[in-house]
Every structure is written in structure tokens, then in C-alpha cells.
Design a protein that fits this description.
Two copies of one chain form a homodimer. By secondary structure, chain A is an alpha/beta fold. The first copy, chain A, has a single domain, classed as TIM Barrel (Alpha-Beta Barrel). Helices cover 41% and strands 14% of the residues of chain A. Chain A is built from twelve helices and eight strands. Chain A has an eight-stranded parallel beta barrel with strand order 1-2-3-4-5-6-7-8, surrounded by nine helices. In chain A, strand 7, helix 9 and strand 8 form a beta-alpha-beta unit. The first copy, chain A, is globular and about 50 Å long. Chain A starts with 5 loop residues before the first strand and ends in an 18-residue tail after the last helix. The relative contact order of chain A is 0.14. The interface between A and B is large, with 79 and 79 residues. Chains A, B: Belongs to the alpha-IPM synthase/homocitrate synthase family. Chains A, B: One of its GO terms (molecular function) is lyase activity. Chains A, B: Keywords: Lyase, Metal-binding, Transferase.
């Protein structure tokens, strides 16, 4: 039996935060429903941030309510501080993601606090979770952002990422995600960083969040698979991007990632034709946005003869 | 010292055969000169096919003459039959590539002969080469096309590819290139096929020709590197494509491939900023053509702090 690899849709959060138009909550929920029907069982559906920071998530409560009502869907929300976490808990999320930047410069610019302060804020989030009557039912995942490098700071040392992960683990992170926020990862770096963090993570699972900013996204997935990672973020159509590189490609495309995993013999439980059909629908909802990924352009490969097809003009 | 990996530009052949407009010979040669100055030392600069089949290569003699006059450039030409090979020899090429499709269906559609007949034609090309006074100075490379699958036939068996390679080696192929003509390769298939062919190739070098049709191009490069391959085809801006999938992505992008290789610690001798500048120029020569690759959108990563940059709106 093929080994299962989980792919989480983050397009509704990481993708939509980068697009120009605000997608109505009903479209977001239609996206969730269709993708769940296609076999995607994990989705980061929104972010609890002040609407004035990201107007796209003004409907976080409504989207959360709708997504949490879908049987079989593991819906998660991203938060960037205690206040957001409390909103996510109130909304009923049982999986909440938080982010700490390994790069001090990125942490200050993005979260307006140092990395150490961001770790301290995670401790407060955990305390708030533990103090809730329903706290034991809520899991906390922490992403270490800019784990492979930072547009502002440049390289980020492996030792620094391990140190940040250790600090988070010591206060009870229940999942560590290593995030290549701005497309600095490469397969060699992946092959070094995941084992280094795994060495301190014990039984805490590691997951990977790759962008395809410089084309290495799927090569990085392969390197992470070799390092034992079985949980990946991706976004339909590669939606998302890097605020520091306008027009740059975004997250690894969900459909290309699933195609890769299935070709490598892993099981994802995801129906690719259904996913491609949904992508076409989402494209109509976001006119003017650049959708990435190669599979949607080429289509799925034929596995059976198709003798009526035209001849190729030239080989190789 | 870093290990050298050779990357051959095939955009002037595989890329231009797919574009709508015929690029003037002077632009082709300006491309060669600029790319050579950027450190690209191997280029497939044209194809000797009847101009009525591919009008783009009506200038094959002029482009060949110009490219062969550039000191330090290893210019090669593609041929699909004996007649083309004789033209290439006459033009002075000392490296001539030929193609045999492992898929019978693709061979018939593309070269209008069976795979066995294509192998027999290679024997005639080799004889013609050997009969020339300058024959010892001419190397013959053979690409096994559709080595990973075929749009018409579907999967292509590893044993079949090995059989074709063995037949070619027995009549003196001096390099074997495994070509994923239509984007069927994946890292698992690459990890199987290259060692299988290497086992029969002895000292004859293997090289790889990948398309990025379904987004797996650079992941396939990584798998081929692991299998010991040190010679890759690529095209500037990912020019090229698949005649059976209009709009599909083409060859792996030269600039993204070089970026990957350098990040993995290999030496390519290629100057990426110069390559990106050339790409921008070539884009002006081919208006309306879709250029692929991610690096040109995102730009090269910063390795030094850039404190004046704006803050990211959201993490991860």
C-alpha cells in the first residue's frame, strides 16, 4: 500500500492575502467544499488579523464557521498574536497556526516584534489555550518563517533555526513547520535543515511550506520527502507570492505537488481532474490574477494510446 | 573545488522551433555571442531539416557558420536523417545530434520511420561520418526521445529504452541523451532509467534533456544529478514546448537550472545576471511568446541586508 502524504491547501490564506480583489465568503466556502470533495482534507482557510491589515480576512469568522461545519475537513486558521489566537479559539478552530520568523529583520518588519518576543507571544497563546475548558481539543502548530533565508537579512543560519525551534518546542509547539517564506530554499539546504530540526523535535512532526519563487519548489519537496517529511503546504494554482518580489511565483501549486507525489508512488487521496476543474472555476473568480503551475497548462498525461492525435513537427 | 556541470542551451533549436515568428540569423548569432560571454559554452544552434518543415531553420548554414566562428563555443546541430547530417558535416559542425524515439508511435509520426529504421539511419550517418577525411574530428550524440513516455503511446518501458540505447551504442553512439520529449519524466522514473542505461553505456557519457511540461523539470534534474548525470539541456526562458499540449511549458529554463545547480554547490561557469539580461533582450525579439521560468520574475536572492525595503504584510 502506498504511503500517505498530506497536502494542505493554503491558497485561501497565503494565496488570497496576495490577490487584489476580496473574494466573497461564499466563494471561499465553495472552494473549500469542492476541494474537500476532491479529497483535500486539510486547509488553512483564513487568518485572524485586523481587517485593516488584510481586508481579505474581514470574513474570518464566517469562513471559519462554514469551513468548520464541513464534515471530514481539518480546517485551520493562521494567527500572528494572542488576540488573533483568542479569536480563532472562539470561532471554534481546533488547529491554529502561529508564525515566528527566524530572521530578526523579518520578525520586526512583519510582526513588529523581535524573534524572542514572538516566541514569548507563543507562550502566551499556549497558556490561553490551556486555560480554556476546550483547550485540550485545540492543537497548536508553529511555522518558523524565513527558515531558509530572508529578503532583508540574507542567509539565516541553520543553528538559528534550530535554536528557534528548540525554544518553541520547550514551550509546547505541537507541530513545527519550516517555511521558505521568500523562496530561498534549495534541495541542499532542505536536506540539511530538516534533519537538523528533526534531531531536536523528537516525536513532534515537521512539515514544509515551500514557495516556488525561484522555481525550486518541487525539487525542495523531493528533498524534504527524502528527509522524511510527509506534510506539505501548497496552494491551488500556485496562488500567493512574495511581497518583496512583485510578480514572483507564489506557493508551490497544489495540483503540481499532488501530481509529483502520486508519480513518486505516494498516496494523497486527491483527485487531480477534480482539482484542475476547481482551479478553472477559481480562475473565473479572480480575474487578472496570475495563476501558476505547469500541470493546468499541459493537462494530465495520457496513459493510453491516442492514435488520432496529430504528429509532432520535430523530436526531442 | 566545486564539481562542474555542463548546461547546453537548446533554445535556439528546441525553443525556436516552437515559436511563431522566424528570428533573423543576426539575432540568433547575437544570442550566441551574448550567452557565450555569459559563460554558456555549449549550444545547439540549429537543425538541418527541410525549411518547408521548419521555416525557422532556413538559415541553418549561416547560423552554423557564425556560431562555429565563435572561439570557445561548442556549437552543435540537430539532424533527423542522413541528408541533414551530411549538411551539418559540410557546414563544419564537429558535434552533431541525432534523435531516435523509443516510442514506435512517436517515431512513426515524427520521423516517418520505425524505431528500428531510425537506428539503421544512425548507422548510415555514422558510416558517412567515418568516410569523411575530417570524420575523426566529428562527434555524434544520440538522443533517445520519449524515453519516459509518449503522448501517443503512453508509458515507454525501461527495457525498451535500454534496448534502443544498446542498439545505438553497438553502432557507436558517442553520447546518449535521455530525452523527456513530452514531459512524462518524474524523479522516480529518472532514478530508475539513468542507472539502467548507464549499466549498458560503459564509458559513453549520458546526458539529460528535460521539459518542464508538468512542473517536474528541476526535480528531475536533481534526480539525474543523484544518478551521476553532469550534462543537461535547457533553454533560456524555458522556450520550447510540446506540440501535443498547446500552451504547455517547454524546456527547463536555463536560468532556473543554473540557479539550482549553483545553489547545490556545482560550478556551471555561467553568470546569472548576464543571463537574465540576455533573456530580457530575447523577450523583445519574440513579442507575444510566453517565456517561462521563475527566476526572472523573482530576481536573484539578496545575500546582503537591504534595510530600506518595505515590510511584508503577512508572514509565511
Amino acid at each position: 500500500m502506498a504511503e500517505y502524504v498530506a497536502v494542505r491547501e493554503v491558497g485561501l490564506r497565503d494565496g488570497l492575502q496576495m490577490v487584489a480583489s476580496v473574494l466573497p465568503a461564499e466563494h471561499k466556502l465553495a472552494w473549500c467544499r469542492a476541494e474537500l470533495a476532491a479529497g483535500v482534507r486539510e486547509m488553512e482557510v483564513t487568518s485572524f488579523v485586523p481587517p485593516k491589515v488584510v481586508p481579505q480576512f474581514v470574513d474570518a469568522d464566517a469562513v471559519g464557521r462554514g469551513a468548520l461545519a464541513l464534515p471530514g475537513l481539518r480546517a485551520s486558521a493562521l494567527v500572528v498574536n494572542l488576540k488573533g489566537a483568542q479569536r480563532a479559539f472562539e470561532a471554534g478552530f481546533t488547529l491554529v497556526g502561529y508564525v515566528v520568523s527566524a530572521s530578526e529583520a523579518h520578525s520586526l518588519a512583519n510582526a513588529r516584534r523581535t524573534t524572542d518576543d514572538a516566541i514569548a507571544e507563543y507562550a502566551r497563546i499556549r497558556e490561553a489555550r490551556d486555560a480554556r475548558p476546550d483547550g485540550t481539543g485545540i492543537a497548536l502548530s508553529v511555522a518558523v518563517a524565513t527558515a531558509f533565508g530572508c529578503t532583508m537579512q540574507g542567509p539565516v543560519a541553520v543553528a538559528r533555526v534550530v535554536e528557534v525551534a528548540e525554544a518553541l518546542l520547550s514551550i509546547g509547539a505541537e507541530e513545527i513547520m519550516l517555511a521558505d517564506t521568500v523562496g530561498y530554499a534549495d534541495p541542499a539546504a532542505v536536506a540539511v535543515l530538516f534533519p537538523a530540526v528533526a534531531a531536536v523535535a523528537g516525536q513532534v512532526p515537521l512539515s514544509a511550506h515551500f514557495h516556488d519563487t525561484r522555481g525550486l519548489g518541487l525539487a525542495n519537496v523531493c528533498a524534504a520527502l527524502e528527509a522524511g517529511v510527509r506534510h506539505f503546504d501548497a496552494s491551488l494554482g500556485g496562488l500567493g507570492g512574495c511581497p518583496f518580489a512583485p510578480g514572483a511565483t507564489g506557493n508551490i501549486a497544489l495540483e503540481d505537488t499532488v501530481f509529483l507525489l502520486e508519480r513518486l508512488g505516494f498516496e494523497t487521496g486527491i483527485d487531480l481532474p477534480a482539482l484542475l476543474a476547481l482551479r478553472a472555476t477559481v480562475e473565473t473568480w479572480l480575474p487578472g490574477e496570475r495563476f501558476g503551475g505547469a500541470l493546468a497548462r499541459a493537462g494530465l498525461p495520457r496513459s493510453a494510446p491516442a492514435p488520432a492525435m496529430a504528429a509532432a513537427p520535430l523530436p526531442a
